[in-house]
Fold this sequence. Notes:
It contains 3 helices and 3 strands, in the order H-E-E-E-H-H. It has a 3-stranded antiparallel beta sheet with strand order 1-2-3. It is globular, with a radius of gyration of 14 Å. By secondary structure, it is of the alpha+beta class. Helix 1 (9-25) packs across helix 2. The mean pLDDT is 86.
Amino acid sequence: MSRSSFPRAEHVAALRAAIARLLGEQQTRLEVAERGIDHLRCCYRFGFRHSPEQDWIELPIHFQVAERLEAGRGPAELERILDSFLQRSFAAAMLAPGAPPERS
């Protein structure tokens, strides 16, 4: 019997660890939480926010990104996705600490 490719707990764990490491390297202080699974789009949803008073801003990550990360292909793809997301969603807040993120 073959193992299902999606969803898998190993994917969530690998993504959480890589996201935490990448945010730490960038010295970005964001709360991160796994926000569920989008079965239709085969994505893991992660939420990001500066503080509990703010709403979550979600980033869907396709399961194939997690598979490549788990296979040892390195975090470059996830890093590009995360950098783009952070610039789009939190750039203003990162420049002005305490400011709420801009919504697009």
